[in-house]
Amino acid sequence: MKRAVISILISCAFAQPALADDAKQAELCATAEARYIDMFGHPSAEEEGVTVVTMYKYNFCPAEITVKVGTIVRWVNVDKRTSHSVIVKGEPESDRAFPEESIEFMFLTAGETPYLCGPHWETYDMIGMVTVEE
What we know:
Elements: H1 2-15, H2 22-40, E1 50-56, E2 59-61, E3 64-68, E4 71-77, E5 87-88, E6 102-107, E7 111-116, H3 121-124, E8 127-133
Parallel strand pairs: 1-4, 3-8
Antiparallel strand pairs: 1-2, 4-6, 5-7, 7-8
């Protein structure tokens, strides 16, 4: 039952996507990346074998990514105090990731897969999309 409710919530979240101010989003994501570098000592793009999405100020950075089948996506919380979770459509909600913690998921099926932050998608539109290519 809980899984069905979560799938409905994800569908509703994507029914009317919020329009983001691109300049503000780019600035926010640049700050998130700087925090990642401060925490881990290198850019997120240098992580081997994974694609990193940071979670910062109720946003996923970047919110939309394209990966190949078999890619592991790692969501990393770079906030100071807030915890986040990740719900990938069709999967149960992850545990909460507190600052400097991460959540990982391997994408094995091609197509568009929406995801969201369990506690923050409705209030803050904290939603994203992974497009998986063959």
